[in-house]
Description:
Cof subfamily of IIB subfamily of haloacid dehalogenase superfamily/HAD-superfamily hydrolase, subfamily IIB, globular, HAD-SF_hydro_IIB, 6-stranded mixed β-sheet, Rossmann fold, Hypothetical Protein, Haloacid Dehalogenase-like Hydrolase, Chain: A, domain 2, magnesium ion binding, alpha/beta
Amino acid sequence: MITPPAPRLVATDLDGTLLRSDGTVSARTRTALCAAAAGGAEIVFVTARPPRAIAHIAEQVGHLGTAICVNGAVTYELARERIVHTRPVAAEAATAMAETLRERLPGAGFAVETGIRVIAATGFGPRWDHDHRHVVVPTVDDVLRLAESIAKFFVWSADHQSDPLLEMARAVAAEHGECTHSGGTGLVEISAIGVSKASTLAGYCAERGIAPDEVLAFGDMPNDLDVLGWAGSAYAMANAHPAVLAATRRHAGSNDDDGVARVLERLFT
């Protein structure tokens, strides 16, 4: 039997995928990532988090690899701790999204990720423990006025679960942005048209002459589906969202059972 070549690039989500539930990278996972890199694979973390929220993770993996952050809007080099590319939402599109969603979802809360901080309107519920750069202002109009740039637009509703809210957002705002969610309760994330984890990863790979069938990907949430569908080999975590499990043929162990590491060990050790 001919052994297929090892992947040239490993693309993995962080929360719910590579990270354990306590937010750490296990020793086993760190060793497996280093073995993959030593075996010639590029390591790319594809995450909804902004660069400032992966600093402690970068330290845990020895500043190995590159991070595609904010669902594809920001590309960040871990070794040099610098942003190398951004794909922001246009101000006009953000304004149109805010107007449409405010009309269709009375009582919803809004915020933006600027790449530097989160700016939230009063009434936006979510807070992230790993992120202290969270500013609250009176209205969504103030949010848009103060935003240095808009890497991602958030809509949140206390009255909806994320799956039905995502369908509602897509129905009314799809012409202005790419709607998805990464598991936050009642929270939808909207990127610029054409911006996703997969589109940014595809561009990154094309620049390096890496074909989709040379990419191995891991994920657990709807915002990972495009990457899992694009990569030549893809694994949904055992703890993944039902839609991700249904759409992905291969399943890895859970994030708390070092699922990513177990697959990498078979390929690189």
